[in-house]
Amino acid sequence: MQSIPLETLPTTFPTIQVGDVQIEESAIAGEMQFHPAASREAAAIAAARALVIQQLLRQQAAHQNRQPADEVCESEIAAMLERELAVPEPDDNACRRYHAAHPERFSHPPRFKVRHILLAAAPDDTSARDTEFQRAERLIDELKATPERFTELAQRHSRCPSAMEGGGLGWLIPGQTVEELDRALVFLPMGLHDRPLPSRYGWHVVHVDAREEAKTLEWEDVVEHVRHELREQATRMALRHYLLELESRIGVKGFSLAESEPDSVLIQ
């Protein structure tokens, strides 16, 4: 990847200094490629934040090891964080409360076994959309009368690769198919849907062969997962406090970790 030229920085960045080290605009421009964002300004802020954090950790490790900052390696920083971050172990009560408050995080998603026939038409081709909609309605009428013909009709008419499988998509969970179908599948009953379903690809004749609703997992099955999530949260919070303490102790001019972005970005 190439660095971002200085002239593409959104504005002239204020001088940033961490301790006695100045972070140059050229360094921010070079770091921006690793922080994709919705705008150049957001990428520049994320890049500046990352460089400030790197300097704070490097200077703290150098102070502890009594060595020049430019000789500090990543393993020394990792060892320092391992020593100094106070991360409490979540107890059973905290884990149970978290599990009860977030059942959606600890459940099997719904599943749908689906067949479909895709009649392709681009979103902006009004004539093709009308033609394929009418054809989809005719296919639905045929399938209502002779449901055993679904495989044949899918192989003849569908423009999806699944046509070779008789239109079968297998078991789907949310996120595995096009967004428009994802939303519809949650509400569709079993069997042949009596209306064509639209998507960006055209019209879908859809048959739901089976469905399994979302199922919340029992506490005993997810206790370690819950404990791991709470440890991760506690680690992020401990690191945030540690970085803010270093910022205050070492001194940062021209930038503020506390004001720049949410906690989750501080940790990256």
Automatic annotation (TrEMBL):
SUPFAM superfamilies: FKBP-like (SSF54534). The keyword Isomerase applies. This is peptidylprolyl isomerase. Belongs to the PpiC/parvulin rotamase family. GO terms for molecular function: peptidyl-prolyl cis-trans isomerase activity. Residues 109-210 form the PpiC domain. It comes from the Bacteria. Keywords: Isomerase, Rotamase. It holds the Pfam family Rotamase. It catalyses: [protein]-peptidylproline (omega=180) = [protein]-peptidylproline (omega=0). PROSITE patterns: PPIC_PPIASE_2. Its EC number is 5.2.1.8.
